[in-house]
Amino acid sequence: MNEYRILIIGGGPAGMETAYQLKNLGLNPVIIERNDKLGGHLAQWDRLFPSSDSAETLLEKLKDQTKDIEKKLNAKISNITKEGNIFHVTLSNGIKYDAAAIVICTGFDLFKAEKKQEYGYGIYNNVITNAELEDYFKTHNDKRIDEPKRIGFVHCVGSRDVKVNNTYCSKVCCATALKQACEIKDEFPYADVYCFYMDLRMFGKGYEDLYLKAQKDFDIKCVRGRVCEVSENIEGKLVIKAEDTLLGTPMKMTLDLLVLMCGMEKSKSSNEIQKMLNINNNEDGFIETRDNFSGLNLTKEKGVFVAGACTSPKTLPDTIAEARAAAMEVFNYLKVNGQPSLVQ
Amino acid sequence: MDNVDLKLFNKIEALNPDINTCMACGLCTATCTAGNFTDMSFRKIILMLQRGKDKEAIELVKKCMMCGKCMMICSRGINTRNILLSITRIYNEEQNI
Ligand code: SF4
Ligand code: SF4
Ligand code: SF4
């Protein structure tokens, strides 16, 4: 027996791309996914910022790349032990693997909107999340979205906020908000669409163009001020309060639909794996990497690698680039440490 | 900004280093009880002090009702109450000299 497996934990974009690259490098990965299908959050999304490309096209490409790779769906890891450099892994369904390396690709969970009680999610019917709006774009099946004439987007929900213990920026939600704002305006051209932001973080390729397009072609109005609370008036319309900080005056506004831009949090599945592998959190509560520059795919445990949003909020291009880098790190590690077929 | 006098701000800052962490989100102002009928804005008080506009800042502080809502909501967890109290105390001390 001279071939150990490479265990990829999580079948989202990071896991799929890592597995594909490892296979290209001549290694033998297996993807362990807890859900009944691959894709993670990407599978829930309709279009991707900055240019509203189809999420499905990317998903299909990633899936196609992994079609010859072994996958275990509906599977969780129940136990891991290490002997020398080899991990003995047992899955919830009893299957066992001997792995020479593990790549954690457990991604993120979306912030639970109901935790920000003052925004009334789960209380007022017309307060929805970014994920629910994306689902609406996919299915056009959401009774709450009924010819809205005034729509608001709340940035930074569950991010940049000591009150929910998440002080970091989730990185993707400014661009998502402007993308969704344009898309909903496209669907309801008579609607007024407002984005309530603190800073517009439009840093990536094409993001500033999206900002310009939102202003110029879609008449999206960006108001600088964090939404403070949401209530409902007697007509059943939403009333939001904020400070219009550029004018320096408090404001109230009546809306038909409010979209909360929920940020990223470390996923629950990351917690479980971290416990088994004895890996710490970083200061934002995500998985700690060996350093912040050239060790981004490494953990303090030898043979345990990381890729994607399990270590910090990330865009899809970042995630895919990290997955490729992680595959290379695994390859280099195994050349020195133990994959017999690679040691020359 | 070349000739501003930051003496008052520096004293308050020494006691409340968190005064520099405001990110001007506006939550304190949006939620402010006094802000409903005056131009009270905790955020602006910080900014005025940082710019040496002490008189304007003090005028605003006088409108505060000490309800504490701004402290409950602040995105950066700033101890707004302590800051408001130190401004009044330090300013009064200086007046008495
Ligand atoms: S990307 Fe924008 S909306 Fe998201 S947390 Fe950062 S600043 Fe807030
Ligand atoms: S304590 Fe003063 S500044 Fe703060 S919310 Fe109350 S009235 Fe406004
Ligand atoms: S709530 Fe806090 S961070 Fe926001 S503007 Fe007020 S003092 Fe600054």
Q: If you had to describe this structure to a student in words, what would you say it looks like?
A:
The complex is a heterodimer of chains A (344) and B (97). With 344 residues, chain A is an alpha/beta fold. Chain A folds into 2 domains: 5-107 and 267-337, 3-Layer(bba) Sandwich (FAD/NAD(P)-binding domain); 111-264, FAD/NAD(P)-binding domain, CATH 3.50.50. Chain A is 26% helix and 27% strand. Chain A has 7 helices and 19 strands. Chain A has helices at 13-24, 55-65, 130-139, 173-187, 207-216, 268-277, 316-336, and strands at 5-9, 29-32, 47-48, 53-54, 70-72, 77-83, 86-91, 96-104, 108-110, 127-129, 150-157, 192-197, 221-224, 227-232, 238-244, 249-255, 257-262, 264-266, 304-306. In chain A, strands 1, 2, 5, 6, 7, 8 and 19 form a 7-stranded mixed beta sheet that branches. In chain A, strands 10-17-11-12-13 form a 5-stranded parallel beta sheet. Chain A has a 3-stranded antiparallel beta sheet with strand order 14-15-16, with no helix packed on it. In chain A, helix 1 packs parallel to helix 2 (55-65), helix 1 packs across helix 7 and helix 3 (130-139) runs parallel beside helix 4. The radius of gyration of chain A is 22 Å and the shape is elongated. The relative contact order of chain A is 0.18. In chain B, helix 1 crosses helix 6 and helix 3 runs antiparallel to helix 4. Chain B has a single domain, classed as Fumarate Reductase Iron-sulfur Protein, Chain B, domain 2, CATH 1.10.1060. The mean pLDDT of chain B is 95. Chain B is globular and about 35 Å long. Chain B is mainly alpha-helical and 97 residues long. The termini of chain B are far apart. Chain B has 6 helices and no strands. Chains A and B meet through strand 14 and strand 15 of A and helix 2 of B. One iron/sulfur cluster binds next to strand 11 and helix 4 of chain A.
